[in-house]
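Late entry, 1,6-di-O-phosphono-beta-D-fructofuranose complex.
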Amino acid sequence: MNKISALQKARAAYSPKLPPAFANGAGVKIIEGAPTASAGDSEKIQKLFSATFGSPEIKFEAGAKAGFSAIAAGVILSGGQAPGGHNVIAGLYDGLKSLNKANKLYGFLKGPDGLVKNEYVELTGEIIDAYRNTGGFDMIGSGRTKLEKEEQFLAAYDHCKRLGITSLVIVGGDDSNTNACLLAEYYKKNNIPINVVGCPKTIDGDLKNEQIEASFGFDTACRVYSELIGNIGRDANSAKKYWHFIKLMGRSASHIALECALQTQPNITIISEEAAARNMTLKEIVEYITGIVAARAAKGMNFGVALIPEGLIEFVPEMKSLISTLNDLIAKNNAAFAALADSDDKLQFINSRLPQDLSYVFSSLPRQIQLQLCLDRDPHGNVQVSLIETEKMLAEMVSMRLSELKAGGLYNGKFSAQTHFLGYEGRCAAPSNFDADYCYSLGYTAAALLGAGKTGYMSSVRNTTKAAKHWIAGGIPITMMMNIERRHGEDKPVIRKALVELEGAPFKRLAEHRTEWAENTCYVYPGPIQYFGPTEVCDQITITLSLERA
Ligand code: FBP
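Prediction complete; structure with ligand written out below:
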């Protein structure tokens, strides 16, 4: 057996809290609401999802329902890791067993691929026990294959039929749950006896809406990053000689950067959604940061902390058009471009073909970033924005701008930057008490939905700003979260992604305080996640959640 840490051993004994609806197991009383519509484009969504559209919202209440016939279910983890995934599976397993001890749970390996290629493991009590309250997705692995084609749906059915599986749980973000909805629709429309239920996962925090209060993993990941940001802030305030530029994960939405800012009170926080709404150019962002660096220097503070969201460059309008023009340009001239061995030749090749305004933007970027924009492409020919070192780019551009100011006698400080990227440090952390409870409850809720024979639903646990004894478990029709969006030149039904709302309470809290945090040193040091101890230390929800649901 693998050696496990003392903390893991102690955490294995933790019993996650459940909503009161499950006092007697996952055999619950079902309270159905009115039929539902979709988040947008209702007519089109109804047409595309004629079999599953309009189902009512569901709430569970404790029941003593017994006599469930035995079923077999399959579970898939899809997309990026998020703390608490193992507890979703543990909750699902325990929920299924509470319905009927003979129920079976299969885990498909490496994400949707496992379902399509029939790679699986039967999850036994022994396997589940080894992973309770642990971080990571290593119990069954995850993957990013998209489950969207008919042949995949049919292959999955074939494999499920052989294993006797009549229920599937897909644990994923907005795209994976969109695909769960397509799968549920396809099976229902074609009378294929497999029910499909989704679970909201992603550290990015962008799978949430009126009905889904939070995606799991956001709480823990933000706590890990905030601990590290706090430590870095304290180092900055001790040494007083570095500016720390910290890029934070979150593919497009800036929820993580915002939550970490609220937890740690850094000097600068860039929010991509704000940059886009204000149509800010890169130069304006650099000017904003430079202004704060110079103002602090004037007060003798040649140090600071700046948070940069991972998706920023895709939200800056000029960068967005530069990236899309580069994608096309390189795709069209692929052979000639690839034949150039020398980096300077490559940059010259690109620059000479860009329209004048974009050539200006391109030339203003540090050379390393120009190269990253040209060279790092995914298999679809797109720039992989997460690999662009925005934190280094901004630090370098700010440094250049400060040199200009210094030459003009407008700045007299010292600027030395350290850069960091926080992402993988948090995705597999041991779940906080909130995520441990929330995930276990989501899994248990999924079991209850399957027990009730529901399909096309997302597992939902609400009222999470209160103690778990007040949580409300139920199901939300996935079609209710959908609208039509343009993707790769086509209109597609998708779950609406939740970006940071500039009118929302979390952003307003930042906006209200950021000048004070910029001009002074107001760092907060949250310290590491605590699992044992006083409630106010161990059982807090994120500031985002508490402000959003206040
Ligand atoms: P999901 O949306 O799948 O949960 O992934 C979130 C995320 O952690 C993003 O924050 C990040 O941009 C991305 O995954 C990185 O993924 P990968 O490690 O596969 O490149």
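The pocket of 1,6-di-O-phosphono-beta-D-fructofuranose is lined by residues 79-80, 82, 173, 202-204, 249-251, 310, 386, 427 (CB under 6 Å). Will revisit in the morning.
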